[in-house]
Write a structure and sequence with these properties.
One of its GO terms (molecular function) is zinc ion binding. It is built from 21 helices and nine strands. By secondary structure, it is mainly alpha-helical. Among the domains are: about 90-185, Glutamyl-tRNA Synthetase, domain 3, CATH 3.90.800.10; about 375-494, Arc Repressor Mutant, subunit A, CATH 1.10.10. Strand 1 (about 5), helix 1 and strand 2 (about 35-40) form a beta-alpha-beta unit. Helix 16 (about 390-405) packs across helix 17. The longest helix is centred in the first third of the chain and has 16 residues, at about 15-30. It starts with a strand and ends with a helix.
């Protein structure tokens, strides 16, 4: 048997360090067993998926030094490698299950589903809906079908409270309660598959032998096991890696820690150091040394050396490790080249100069004008916002609303950023100049800079959003109670 592993990111935002973490372990496992590693793009969420995000995933993983044997950019014998290009397959397999009695067509509306869950809750039961909860009388199904009402295809699941046994490479036998498993949607009303159907179909057709993924998927394993049984296919071996966590042990999230690979690239971390740090997340070299290369990890890789304790992603520890790489692995000529490649290259200068030139009288003006573009976290304080109109609560509201809008922005360029922020200012009934004032400070560290919209385009989405989050924290942050009020007000803006 040839070992085949895969990573399957969704192109719906900035490339996540968690994706690189999973990709690294899949590549190492495949290479350690003389196998192949695949990259598949799970882009069935067409509302949020973008070509820019897909390209950012490919570029950032390659920047880290990872590579794959098959994928959307390199081809292979098991393509296509984008789920959006495999749509006919999923419908065929979903209807195959319906014909075999392993799935059913469900016409239940969202309101009906809410009522069913509430009824189960009131009866003291779990809220996982079973086929018996969802199925309608045949005459009602016929009526809704004749009326052309939307439907989904759901999988059949056990009605009893028995246990499902899952074999995990790291955890051994895991028992999960069937009572917690709902009649999962396999095909949505728009014909798009859910992760669960597409994942199982693709892994089988692409010959995946080992599924190495995050432990958040453990609870989905019974559904996947059922689907493999329904189709009559052999199930790949499962291995659930521990989740990356913040220093406070919570799940790694952008609210508490930068999670975008592009952020770390923009900050000036070395790819070797970041990959080294991800390799240390729950795994160790036989000699326990902390600094090692990808080649070292590949040479000594053993999946059984993964520790199940939640690995802490500590940016300060990463900075320390990155410092070792800078001092121990680069001579001054190499460091100079890294600096040029990172920020001081002709392409970057050509992007910045049109904005800086308008404010320059002597060449020495350039460095102060552009310093914030090659900086990380800016040394701003609450006093930095003293010249901004409005109370502290108003400034925080503007920053938080801007952050939420910019987090949802699918295409990052000057025009879309401007339209987004102007629209938000208009919705709040605030002059756009006043609305943008705190953003100038958050993004550039000063209101005496060139256009904040141009600055955000130059900085990119990852760093821009990180600076807005930092500014919010500098101003004291938003309490849970205040956050609920802000969320309500924000939703009313539309």
């Amino acid at each position: 048997m040839t070992v085949r592993t895969r990573v399957a990111p969704s192109p719906t935002g900035d490339p996540h360090v968690g994706t690189a973490y999973i990709a690294l372990f899949n590549q190492c496992f495949a290479r350690a067993h003389g196998g192949q590693f695949l990259l598949r793009i799970e882009d069935t969420d067409q509302a949020r998926s973008t070509p820019e995000s897909e390209q950012a995933i490919l570029d950032s993983l390659r920047w880290l030094g990872l590579d794959w044997d098959e994928g959307p950019d390199v081809g292979g014998d098991h393509g296509p490698y984008r789920q959006s290009e495999r749509m006919e397959l999923y419908g065929q397999y979903a209807r195959q299950l319906v014909a075999a009695g392993k799935a059913f067509i469900c016409y239940r509306s969202a309101e009906e589903l809410d009522a069913l869950r509430e009824a189960r809750r009131a009866a003291g039961n779990g809220t996982a809906l079973k086929p018996s909860d969802l199925k309608l009388p045949e005459e009602e199904v016929a009526r809704r079908e004749a009326a052309g009402e939307p439907y989904v295809i759901r999988m059949m699941v056990p009605e009893d409270d028995g246990r499902c046994e899952i074999d995990d490479m790291l955890r051994g036998s895991i028992e999960l309660d069937w009572g917690m498993v709902d009649a999962q949607i396999l095909l949505k009303s728009d014909g798009m598959p859910t992760y669960h159907l597409a994942n199982v179909v693709d892994d089988h057709l692409m010959g995946i032998t080992h599924v190495i993924r995050g432990e958040e998927w453990i609870n989905s394993a019974p559904k996947h096991k059922l689907l493999y049984e329904y189709f009559g296919w052999d199930m790949p071996q499962l291995c659930h890696l521990p989740l990356l966590r913040n220093p406070d042990k919570s799940k790694l999230s952008k609210r508490k820690n930068p999670t975008s690979i592009l952020y770390y690239q923009r900050m000036g971390f070395l790819p070797e150091a970041l990959l080294n740090y991800l390799g240390r997340m729950g795994w160790s070299m036989p000699d326990e040394r902390e600094k090692f290369s990808l080649a070292d990890m590949l040479e000594h890789f053993d999946i059984q050396r993964v520790s199940l304790g939640g690995p802490i992603f500590d940016v300060e520890k990463l900075r320390w490790l990155n410092g070792l790489w800078i001092r121990e692995d680069l001579d001054t000529a190499q460091l100079a080249q890294r600096l040029v490649d990172w920020a001081y290259n002709a392409d970057n200068l050509q992007r910045v100069l049109p904005h800086a030139q308008k404010r320059m009288e002597v060449l020495s003006d350039f460095a102060p004008l552009a310093a914030f573009l090659v900086s990380g976290t800016l040394p701003i304080t609450e006093d930095s916002f003293s010249a901004v109109k409005g109370e502290r609560e108003d400034i925080l509201r503007h920053l938080q609303f801007a952050l939420w809008r910019l987090e949802a922005l699918r295409h990052w360029n000057r025009d879309t950023i401007w339209d987004t922020l102007k629209g938000l200012a208009d919705a709040e009934g605030v002059k756009v100049k006043d609305f943008l004032a705190p953003l100038f400070v958050a993004i550039a560290g000063s209101s005496a800079s060139f256009s904040v919209v141009d600055s955000m385009e130059l900085l990119g989405p990852d760093m821009s959003r990180a600076r807005l989050r930092h500014a919010i924290e500098v101003l004291g942050g938003v309490s849970k109670k205040a956050m609920k009020r802000l969320e309500k007000t924000y939703q009313q803006l539309g």
